[in-house]
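DM between two lab members

TW: hey, do you still have the Lipoprotein entry open?
JB: yeah, one sec
JB: this one, 131 aa:
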Amino acid sequence: MSAPEDEQDPHTPLWPPLLATLCVLLVATRVREQKLVLSALATLVALPTLWRVLTRRWVRGDVLRGLAMGYLASHVPLLLGACSTLDRPECRIRLCLDGVLAGVPYVPWAALLGPLLYWAWGTVGAGRRVL
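TW: and the structure you got?
JB:
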């Protein structure tokens, strides 16, 4: 027997709210309303991520792997800040701290985004038990 076509997989994101948020983003961009653009972008990223986190099947070790991903992701803004100073000759010999310090305000956001993206979009690997 085949599965009925009416049933929707609970792990797929909800398309109507995503499309509505995308429409709000396009209109806000057109009228140049910066706060509405930022909130629509945040919603466009957060909505499918939170939906996936809440509906996914958790496996053993996901929390620890997510926290490790947050630790790794928190270093990305610092690395990008350091790489942004490589075009200056004096920074090729020794590290210029102004680029590294420019990325410091983004560290907590990257540390939060890393585990969320891992928990939302990470797949169950071979040999991992589903709880």
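TW: got it. The mean pLDDT is 76. The chain is about 65% helix and 0% strand.
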